[in-house]
Write a structure and sequence with these properties.
- This protein is mostly helical and 275 residues long.
- It has helices at residues 10-39, 41-46, 48-65, 71-76, 91-120, 123-128, 137-140, 142-152, 156-187, 193-198, 213-263, 268-272, and strands at 6-7, 78-81, 201-204.
- The chain has a 3-stranded antiparallel beta sheet.
- The protein is globular, with a radius of gyration of 27 Å.
Length: 275
């Protein structure tokens, strides 16, 4: 690695990510249009997430995994380095980065959606009915069949508790990404969570002006505002959840009190009879 290379600033990383997202979006759109033209709109809608995944894998395989800069990195003249900041990342580290950036989020989201669906399905229905989303490769995997058997052994209370945990995970993942983005605004190192986990940072070429102190201060202020906004969002979600729990408890009490009254029955003939 050239000793003249210095740390890339946050503005340069943001521009690089935006440019990559632009090209990835074009690749996704082209792949989706090709599939829709060959197989029809229904197939495209059914496999839209998978097409986007394959397009992202293809983009990063042709660039990052092959040892080249992405179009966004080339646009702002930055290069990836490993934690030593003296060498480019190894092939294994780049493969881990691509997996964390594309494959892992897909399977995590897909798995949480299906798991929540299974937990909300009655045990009898789970054995006899399969939703449209569970048909196909995902529903035929050995891991998912094992998970279905494990879920069938849970009690009703355990299923409700696990369903709440899954719901919190689905709600918490976007909040975690926002928190990570706020941290990036304040320190200007890891724009993507996948790069933080893989330990990959960026250096910019020598001879190119870096971000001045005013730009870095602006990003730090943006980070502080993002943390405050995230804190407010979490507080609102917590308050809404508490209100829903209270309303659910009140409804249960009301239902239990009104059930004996409605179970006695009412005979209009007796009410209207004459002696």
């Amino acid at each position: 690695m050239s000793p003249a290379a210095v740390e890339a600033g946050p503005a340069r990383l943001v521009r690089s990510a935006q440019k990559d997202e632009l090209y990835r979006g074009a690749l996704r759109s082209g792949a989706g249009a090709a599939l829709g033209g060959l197989a029809g709109a229904r197939i495209w809608l059914e496999w839209q997430k998978e097409i986007e995944l394959f397009a992202d894998i293809a983009y990063f395989t042709l660039t990052t995994l092959s040892g080249y800069q992405t179009l966004g990195e080339e646009y702002v003249s930055i290069i990836q380095v490993d934690p030593s900041q003296k060498r480019v990342p190894s092939v294994l580290r780049r493969a881990v980065l691509i997996s964390l950036h594309t494959v892992f989020p897909y399977f995590l989201d897909k798995g949480l959606v299906h798991l929540e669906h299974e937990l909300q399905t009655e045990p009898d229905e789970m054995r006899t009915l399969q939703s449209r989303h569970l048909r196909g490769l995902w529903g035929r995997t050995f891991l998912w069949r094992w998970l279905q058997k494990w879920l069938s052994r849970l009690t009703e209370q355990q299923r409700k508790t696990l369903c709440q945990v899954v719901h919190f995970l689905r709600q918490g993942i976007p909040l975690l990404r926002r928190l990570h983005l706020a941290i990036f605004y304040m320190n200007g190192i890891f724009y993507h969570l996948s790069k933080r986990m893989a330990g990959i940072t960026y250096l910019r070429y020598a001879g190119i002006d870096g971000d001045n102190q005013h730009v870095r201060s602006s990003y730090r202020l943006l980070g502080i505002l993002s943390v405050l906004h995230l804190t407010l969002t979490v507080g609102i979600h917590a308050y809404s959840f508490q209100q829903r729990q209270r309303a659910r408890q009140e409804w249960k009490v009301h239902r239990n009190l009104s059930y004996p009254r409605t179970s006695i029955g009412y005979n209009p003939v007796t009410k209207l009879s004459f002696s």
